């Protein structure tokens, strides 16, 4: 199997794991389960649970304790999209060609389905205590998700992103948004995989740094593609940042410097990953594919 | 000290405990900490952490492990109010005479501050793992909060409440809303107090039933007062349910039956509380004051 076949295989498996943990659509309140499940199953690359599982495997993890955490991180990611799409936020009617949750189920349900997913993410993650794993290790994993999803992580990044809309921002603010809004959950994904497989504190810290670099390179690449790609390749309008007068890594540093930096950051991440005394060729390929993608 | 002085004292102490766990207002994202802290400190009876602590004391608890859980349950309660007040939900501009969170900080911040509080509630609750308490007991308490706050608890009740707006509902739906929307968090409060003090599964179950009855009696009393009280006594407009064409316990069963039922449910709760082989005179008085209040 080549990498792309393997990626398709593992993504399908990951999606199935996530699906297993979704709530049954029953009871007087079943409308919210429907809205939650619609939101999670509306598509996506399943990147976070995939990275979590591959990091877990790299550190020698073989148990089932990782499964509820994989579902939980995808629920956290999904709730953030559902709330981001609300009229009070970005007011988006479509995502990946499908109606957004509030567009399909109404504004109130958009709020509640997001709340339901965040809460259910923690409920799901806490079932990891039932897997026969050391409870201290599970608690550590839960706390990483809590921290990285919250005001010192993803939500913190979203706040600053919202506040920066419609005005020029400086490098420091842009770094903050990039580090937290997308970076934090990627860090949590890989760190939880490492922690549950029994990695040492130093190893978990190394993984956090790698994930942070991957997230940053991923986003700079996004900014570059918005300028250099074509509508056909990207599958979405190019130059959207320019039209939206959005400050990006490219508008601050220029295309040449951005390309140089993405190269440097990527090399660093890959080097650090290779320096760990463990191997996962697929994880390495996955990270490369994220950074060097053409769309 | 009489009961009312003691209640004022303990409420002030409880409020101070909650305050201790609020996030520091600093960093690039400090606007969200401000909005979260404003929401929590905007007032309220602090009933849930108070009930939690008194139940903990009744079962012989004396440690500090209860403190983060007290703060967490108040954060969950507060986030639910913040999101309930949003334009997409009830669209309320004032609560307890103060601007609601979104009215003061904008709609986007209303969404994010609520998300921030829910996430931070779990983060705060998880610090209970640091208190030297048996991690399995802490995990059990966390899972109770997760379950009772989520789609099988409070959020579930809110969904059905939202769906029932503007149409007549039957006894079954009304019971569902009363049981979950307010009842679930009261149950969680008392159950967590019991669990962390080392109560047995049977005792925790008994406490759940008592809290459920207290919540139900509290709400039927609310419906009765809306009909029988005066604007002066209640401090808010009476007959509001009638004007809003809202189905209540009184509109379904009539005033006489409602009064009879609240009496019966209350007696049952108090009897079950007294039947436990533990004593907390203040908790008993507190519960009576909730049920037999005139406003």
TrEMBL record, chains A, B:
Pfam families: polyprenyl_synt (PF00348). Its EC number is 2.5.1.10. One of its GO terms (molecular function) is (2E,6E)-farnesyl diphosphate synthase activity. InterPro entries: Isoprenoid_synthase_dom_sf, Polyprenyl_synt, Polyprenyl_synt_CS, Prenyl_diphosphate_synthase. It catalyses: isopentenyl diphosphate + (2E)-geranyl diphosphate = (2E,6E)-farnesyl diphosphate + diphosphate. It is an enzyme of class 2 (transferase). This is Farnesyl diphosphate synthase.
């Amino acid at each position: 199997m080549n990498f792309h076949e393997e990626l398709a295989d593992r993504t399908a498996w990951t999606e199935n794991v996530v699906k297993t943990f979704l709530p049954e659509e029953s009871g007087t309140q079943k409308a919210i389960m429907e809205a939650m499940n619609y939101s999670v199953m509306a598509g996506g690359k399943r990147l976070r649970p995939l990275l979590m599982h591959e990091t877990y495997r790299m550190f020698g993890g073989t148990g089932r304790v990782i499964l509820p955490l994989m579902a939980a991180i995808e629920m956290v990611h999904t709730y953030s999209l559902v709330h981001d799409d609300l009229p009070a936020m970005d007011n988006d009617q479509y995502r990946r060609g499908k109606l957004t949750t509030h567009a399909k189920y109404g504004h109130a349900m958009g709020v509640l389905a997001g709340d339901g997913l965040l809460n259910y993410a923690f409920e799901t993650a806490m079932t990891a205590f039932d897997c026969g794993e050391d409870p201290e290790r599970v608690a550590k994993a839960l706390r990483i998700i809590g921290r990285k999803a919250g005001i010192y992580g993803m939500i913190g990044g979203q706040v600053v992103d919202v506040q920066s809309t419609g005005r020029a921002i400086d490098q420091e603010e842009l770094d903050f948004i990039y580090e937290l809004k997308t970076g934090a959950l990627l860090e949590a994904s890989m760190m939880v995989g490492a922690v549950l497989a029994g990695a040492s504190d130093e190893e978990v810290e190394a993984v956090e740094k790698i994930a942070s670099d991957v997230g940053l390179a991923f986003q700079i690449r996004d900014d570059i593609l918005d300028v250099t790609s074509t509508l056909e390749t990207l599958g979405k309008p190019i130059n959207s940042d320019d039209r939206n007068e959005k400050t990006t890594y490219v508008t601050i540093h220029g295309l040449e410097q951005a390309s140089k930096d993405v190269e440097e950051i990527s090399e660093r991440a890959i080097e650090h990953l290779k320096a760990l005394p463990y191997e996962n060729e697929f994880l390495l390929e996955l990270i490369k594919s994220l950074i060097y993608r053409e769309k």
